[in-house]
Amino acid sequence: MKDGTLGSVPQHERRFRVQSYEMGPDGRIKLGSLLNYFQEAASEHAENLGASVTDLISRNLTWVLSRYHIKIFRYPLWKESLQLTTWPSVQRGLFALREFEVRDEQSDLLAAATTSWMLLDIKSKRPVPLADNLPEYLQDSRRAIFDLFGPLPQVEKVSLELPFRVQRRDLDWNRHVNHVVYVEWAAETAPQDILENFQLAEIEVDFRGEAFFGEAVLSQTEIICLGEEPLLSHQIIKEKDRKELTRLRTLWKKF
């Protein structure tokens, strides 16, 4: 791993080698494993910038993910070596944006993502100003995916629904469900025909609430469009009070 420059702006590079336990039944990397690569690289870079969760928690602050948009152009295979590059792009009010790109050994782009983060006061659960609470670091306005993060549609007609109960393995440092788990719950609720014949090519996520150990949640899916590139809308809610936790939109393709 190394920190380099993107123009005059620091970027962070992290190399990964796809392991056998990260593979799915189709012989390609699991979606959750790929998303974990993004999370690991972002955490390392934040630490290098003096803005990691461990740096912040002593001041009762932490990072929370607000939005996520990822495009996957090819799922890597077992033993493939990957280079993941991440950088902070812009700050918009209370939101700090971070970008990602994954390339193979031939420098072909396999995946790209843009994310939006808030700095949260742990006690009040309210966002705090970035400039007042972060060290200064350089940014690059280049976006891996251009997205203004407008609202995602709410599920209007539930086509499929699956229940899940939050396990300890689902929790992260903030003691709530890790963002990767929400994406996996949504994907599990896609129609069986789509799961068997397509792969996720694009995912948009709007995180709206927290789920904790032992809570029961429902993953709901609405089929927007079938055909050569199925489009689905998802939401994850708490079973008890129907509180909305996450909205998602997924596009599926054959690779």
Overall description:
- With 255 residues, the chain is mostly beta strands.
- The protein has two domains: 2-121, Roll (Thiol Ester Dehydrase, Chain A); 160-253, Thiol Ester Dehydrase, Chain A, CATH 3.10.129.10.
- The chain has four helices and eleven strands.
- The chain has helices at 31-48, 53-56, 179-188, 192-197; strands at 2-6, 9-17, 61-72, 81-92, 95-103, 109-121, 160-165, 199-207, 216-225, 231-238, 244-253.
- The radius of gyration is 18 Å and the shape is globular.
- The two termini are 30 Å apart.
List the topology elements.
Layout lengths: L1 E5 L2 E9 L13 H18 L4 H4 L4 E12 L8 E12 L2 E9 L5 E13 L38 E6 L13 H10 L3 H6 L1 E9 L8 E10 L5 E8 L5 E10 L2
Antiparallel strand pairs: 1-2, 2-4, 3-6, 3-8, 4-5, 5-6, 7-9, 8-11, 9-10, 10-11
Helix pairs in contact: 1-3
